[in-house]
C-alpha cells in the first residue's frame, strides 16, 4: 500500500524539487509540468497545493533565501569578528557549491520578477543586519537609511560579486584561495567603514 503524503509534506516535496531544479535554471524557467512529473502527481494537483505558478515560484525562491540564511549563520558562541569570518566563509562556500542556483536567485531579482526581488531584498537585508550586529552596531540594523547600513549593504554586493566571479574560474585559474577571498573582503569592509 502506497503511503500518501500529508498536504504539508507534499508542499515541502514540491518546493524541494523546485530548489533542485533551481540549480540549473532561473526561477521563471522552471517547468510546472516537469515538477509535477518529478513528484509523481498531475499538474492540476500541483495547483491544488499552490493556487498559481507565481505562488509556487514564491515558495521556491523563499525557500532558497531561507536556506542561504540558515547555512551562513555562524555559531552564536563565537566572538563577533569570528562570527563575521565564519558567515563569510560559509557565504563564499555556498556560492561556490551552488553557483548556478545562486546566480539564478540573483538574476531572478535583477530580472525584475517582483517576488524574486522581494525575497532577494529581504535576504540581503537580513545578512546586512547580521553583519552590523557582528560589527557592534546593531542599532543601525533597523535604519536602512543610515550611511553605515547603506555602506554595509553595498559591501555585501561587492563580496557577492567577487565570490561569483571567482567561483566561475577553473580552480587552477583562480588567483587566490577562498580563505584569501574572505580575508580580502573583511579588510575591504574595515577600510570602507573608515571612509
Automatic annotation (TrEMBL):
<dbReference type="InterPro" id="IPR001647">
    <property type="entry name" value="HTH_TetR"/>
</dbReference>
<dbReference type="Pfam" id="PF00440">
    <property type="entry name" value="TetR_N"/>
</dbReference>
<feature type="domain" description="HTH tetR-type">
    <location>
        <begin position="8"/>
        <end position="68"/>
    </location>
</feature>
<keyword id="KW-0238">DNA-binding</keyword>
<dbReference type="InterPro" id="IPR054129">
    <property type="entry name" value="DesT_TetR_C"/>
</dbReference>
<dbReference type="InterPro" id="IPR050109">
    <property type="entry name" value="HTH-type_TetR-like_transc_reg"/>
</dbReference>
<dbReference type="InterPro" id="IPR009057">
    <property type="entry name" value="Homeodomain-like_sf"/>
</dbReference>
<feature type="DNA-binding region" description="H-T-H motif">
    <location>
        <begin position="31"/>
        <end position="50"/>
    </location>
</feature>
<keyword id="KW-0804">Transcription</keyword>
<protein>
    <submittedName>
        <fullName>TetR/AcrR family transcriptional regulator</fullName>
    </submittedName>
</protein>
<keyword id="KW-0805">Transcription regulation</keyword>
<dbReference type="Pfam" id="PF21943">
    <property type="entry name" value="TetR_C_46"/>
</dbReference>
Amino acid at each position: 500500500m502506497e503511503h500518501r503524503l500529508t498536504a504539508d509534506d507534499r508542499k515541502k516535496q514540491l518546493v524541494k524539487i523546485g530548489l533542485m531544479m533551481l540549480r540549473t535554471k532561473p526561477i521563471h524557467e522552471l517547468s510546472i509540468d516537469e515538477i509535477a512529473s518529478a513528484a509523481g502527481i498531475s499538474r492540476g494537483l500541483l495547483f491544488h497545493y499552490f493556487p498559481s505558478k507565481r505562488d509556487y515560484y514564491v515558495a521556491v525562491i523563499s525557500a532558497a533565501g531561507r536556506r542561504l540564511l540558515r547555512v551562513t549563520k555562524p555559531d552564536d558562541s563565537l566572538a563577533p569578528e569570528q562570527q563575521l569570518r565564519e558567515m563569510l566563509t560559509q557565504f563564499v562556500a555556498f556560492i561556490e557549491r551552488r553557483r548556478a542556483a545562486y546566480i539564478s536567485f540573483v538574476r531572478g531579482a535583477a530580472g525584475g520578477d517582483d517576488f524574486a526581488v522581494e525575497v532577494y531584498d529581504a535576504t540581503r537585508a537580513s545578512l546586512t543586519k547580521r553583519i552590523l550586529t557582528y560589527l557592534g552596531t546593531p542599532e543601525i540594523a533597523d535604519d536602512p537609511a543610515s550611511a553605515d547600513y547603506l555602506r554595509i549593504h553595498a559591501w555585501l554586493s561587492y563580496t557577492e560579486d567577487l565570490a561569483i566571479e571567482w567561483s566561475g574560474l577553473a580552480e587552477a585559474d583562480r588567483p587566490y584561495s577562498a580563505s584569501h577571498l574572505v580575508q580580502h573582503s573583511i579588510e575591504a569592509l574595515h577600510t570602507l567603514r573608515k571612509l
